[in-house]
């Protein structure tokens, strides 16, 4: 039986079906399939391989732990855990005091929800959490409750009445209503004016940018959110799952907004492929946490910590945050030029650093979802892997080690594919 048929027969059908390529190996910015066809990876496998695929220093560090051998310690101490925690806190410029290591991203947003509610309870507040429509935080119950996608939580059978969703500040709405980001947030608050902000709200969570379209917030919006949280003593969380570890040209995306959240949720690029995630927080978020009340079997796993150590070391050694910033500018210049060439098809180019999304129009003349889906498949045949979002967007996020000529080749390939798709009426 063919591999894809076996998976279809035996595997959870709820897995996200990405493009049909069978991976054999991955190195640097390239992926090789089972026929040795080479693809340029414009996804970093959904923003994980920030330091490049198959990084030698990462493999060496994990091998060091394998050779000891020290595969698992549960919650016992070991030197890799100590070294990693120290390095991670230093990587944030000591902006956070505490780390909670986990394995998957949704676990960290669940943990943030728990911390925000415990904080609220200790401060005699209602367990109200504010989130935004259209944002996304994972696939577990708490994270889907916080996410702003209604259909995603139908399976739960009820709505958490203590989670409120405000409107997202899409630039289109701001322009149409001539509103600044700050005013948009202040207007959003009017919709929850029945709440006593100081007594009712425990926490507020933002996705660092809205995922499907890499949509950043206006800076003054996030600054106003942060001001609101500080003024009302509300825990402010930013979900940095896709955006952390250099992706946007800063170590973390919150730096672009010049705010200082109480909690950030990280994963993906944190372990360069090793399943590690983590929540970083200020002391006040962990103030009332009892020993044993927040732990996990694989928290601080030695191999995961080794992967985390090597990831930070490589980001520093290869100056990947700076590269992401500089090459990201070049990347966005090329993409914006593409938008100018196809103004009737491309509505927006979003993102920062080495994350970008091409947003197509979705109107009477153009079916942007059909175009994006067709192009994602077509690009794969042309040896370029992009993120198929299932919406009117194509998302791009090459490894941060990518060179300018590789960026140029990839964008040229996108141009060709768009041209062919239009000529074939695939929109
Ligand atoms: C913003 C955001 N939050 C949470 C998650 C959930 O992470 P995981 O798939 O590791 O559970 C993701 C995953 O894509 C994400 O992008």
Mean pLDDT metric? 96
CATH T-level topology of the domain at 57-317: Aspartate Aminotransferase, domain 2
Distance between the termini: 35 Å
Q: How many distinct beta strands?
A: 15
Q: What is the annotated CATH architecture of the domain at 57-317?
A: 3-Layer(aba) Sandwich
The largest sheet has its strands arranged as 4-10-9-8-7-5-6
Structure notes:
By secondary structure, the chain is α/β, with parallel strands linked by helices. It has 15 helices and 15 strands. Helix 4 packs parallel to helix 12 (about 300-315), helix 13 (about 320-340) runs parallel beside helix 15 (about 405-425) and helix 14 packs across helix 15. The longest helix has 22 residues, at about 320-340. It is globular, with a radius of gyration of 22 Å. Bound molecules: pyridoxal-5'-phosphate. Pyridoxal-5'-phosphate binds near residues 105 and 241.
């Amino acid at each position: 039986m063919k591999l894809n048929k076996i998976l279809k027969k035996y595997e959870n059908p709820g897995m996200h079906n990405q493009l049909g390529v069978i991976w054999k190996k991955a190195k640097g910015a390239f992926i090789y399939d089972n026929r040795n066809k080479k693809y340029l990876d414009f996804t970093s496998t959904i923003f994980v391989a920030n330091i490049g695929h198959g990084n030698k220093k990462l493999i060496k560090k994990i091998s060091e732990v394998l050779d000891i051998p020290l595969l698992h310690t549960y919650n016992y101490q070991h030197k890799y855990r100590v070294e990693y925690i120290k390095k991670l806190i230093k990587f944030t410029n000591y902006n956070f005091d505490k780390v909670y290591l986990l394995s998957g991203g949704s676990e960290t947003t669940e943990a943030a929800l728990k911390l925000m509610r415990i904080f609220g309870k200790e401060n005699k507040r209602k367990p109200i959490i504010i989130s935004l429509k259209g944002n996304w935080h994972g696939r577990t119950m708490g994270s889907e409750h916080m996410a702003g996608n209604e259909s995603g939580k139908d399976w739960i059978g009820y709505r958490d009445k203590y989670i409120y969703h405000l409107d997202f500040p899409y630039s289109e709405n701001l322009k149409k209503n001539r509103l600044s980001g700050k005013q948009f947030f202040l207007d959003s608050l009017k919709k929850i004016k029945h709440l006593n902000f100081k007594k009712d709200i425990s926490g507020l969570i933002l996705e660092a940018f809205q995922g499907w379209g890499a949509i950043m917030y206006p800076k003054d919006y996030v600054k106003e959110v942060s001001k609101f949280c500080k003024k009302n003593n509300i825990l402010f969380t930013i979900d940095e799952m896709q955006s952390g570890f250099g992706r946007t040209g800063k170590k973390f995306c919150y730096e672009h907004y010049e705010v200082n959240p109480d909690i950030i949720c990280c994963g993906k690029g944190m372990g360069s492929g090793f399943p590690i995630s983590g929540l970083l927080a200020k002391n006040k978020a962990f103030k009332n946490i009892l020993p044993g009340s927040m732990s996990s079997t694989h928290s601080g796993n030695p191999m995961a910590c080794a992967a985390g150590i090597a990831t930070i070391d490589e980001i520093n050694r290869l100056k990947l945050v700076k590269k992401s910033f500089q090459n990201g500018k070049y990347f966005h210049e090329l993409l914006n030029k593409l938008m100018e060439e196809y103004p009737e098809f491309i509505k927006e180019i979003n993102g920062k650093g080495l994350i970008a999304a091409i947003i197509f129009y979705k109107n009477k003349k153009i079916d942007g979802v059909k175009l994006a889906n067709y192009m994602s498949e077509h690009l794969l045949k042309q040896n370029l892997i992009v993120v198929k979002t299932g919406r009117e967007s194509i998302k791009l996020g090459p490894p941060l080690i990518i060179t300018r000529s590789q960026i140029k080749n990839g964008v040229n390939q996108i141009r060709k594919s768009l041209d062919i798709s239009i000529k074939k009426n695939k929109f």
